[in-house]
Amino acid sequence: MASSPATIGDFSVLPVSIPPLPSFPKNAVHYLYVRRHTPKIPTPTDSRSLFVTNVPVDSTEAHLRALFASLVGAGRFESATFEDESKEAHSQSQSQSLIDVAQPAHAARLLQAHGRKRKREDDEAERAREEAAVRLPSTWTRPLRRSGSTAVVLLADEKSVQQVLKAIGKAHKTKKYPAWPGSDDLPEGKVPPLGPAWLKAHNRLSYPDRQALQASVDAFSALFARREQEAAEIAKRLRNEPDEDGFVTVTRGGRSAPASRTEAEEAKRRMLEKQEKKKEELTNFYRFQLRERKKAEQAELLKRFDEDRRKLEAMREKKGKFVPEA
């Protein structure tokens, strides 16, 4: 087996021995590329994180935990975040969630503009419960990574990062490469198996239990109806409350009754006060400009007066030199 370079650029090359499998009964070597994690936007955990690329397609956190334990011992590994998981979390934060889908567009606008504000913690907890209730059951027991994907490994401290990089260099010198953990090396129940068992489980989960599916549909319908009811209550309140300008918001369904005379008079009074306030603000705002304009007009008048005076003096001098014919 040809030797591989110890480093490529900023990456340390970690050869990993892949044990024989029934689908491929030969020993193989897979290369991981490891460096310190230096993202564009720094985070507090960068000093104790490693960026790993070219992870195997069947990688899980349990696999990486066992691999790093074989390099520097147990207790150094904390967690791992894979590329597809971080992208999914980022896309979910920017895209519509199941809760946003489970309400009509007009209800969403009304609730966002006029809904009662709740505490952020309570809102997030309730949103998580509602999303869990309306989410359909998953059809896969275990994801597979894209070929050549990446992961960020979080270790216990910065010293652990140094020990991992040092262990990778030592593995190149001794030619004793760590083995990629198989099903026998991982805790039972934490990593579902691949192969025929994985495909059989997918086929079974593609036909979920009727009661579980019905519960998800019922939760979605109940959430949709509740959001419709909340929007209807807000629309009814807006149809009977004029705004500060004396206007009544036109909402879906039209007005059920005109605003009362007392409400209209109060709204008109507020509107007149607002107009007086705006007029006063505009007067104060343009006072400086009016003063400057008057100064400019006075300067222009003085300039024209001087020009006319010089013209008059020139005409007088010319008239004094005039000699009429005899």
Order of helices and strands: EEEEHEHHHHEHHHH
Mean pLDDT: 78
Q: Please give the number of β-strands.
A: 6
Distance separating the two termini:
131 Å
How many individual helices? 9
Q: What radius of gyration results from the CA coordinates?
A: 39 Å
**pLDDT under 50 segments (min length 5)?**
90-96, 254-258
Largest sheet: 6 strands, antiparallel
What structural class do you assign from the helix and strand content? alpha+beta
Helix content: 40-55%
What fraction strand?
Answer: 5-15%
| Inertia-based shape | elongated
The oligomerization state is single chain
Kindly report the spatial arrangement of strands forming the biggest sheet.
Answer: 1-2-3-4-6-5
Concise summary:
With 326 residues, this protein is an alpha+beta fold. It has a domain at 7-205. 52% of the residues lie in helices and 11% in strands.
Q: Could you characterize what this model shows?
A:
- This protein has 326 residues and is of the alpha+beta class.
- It has a domain of 199 residues.
- It contains nine helices and six strands, in the order ββββαβααααβαααα.
- It has a six-stranded antiparallel sheet.
- Helix 4 packs across helix 8.
- It is elongated.
- It starts with 6 loop residues before the first strand and ends in a 6-residue tail after the last helix.
- The relative contact order is 0.11.
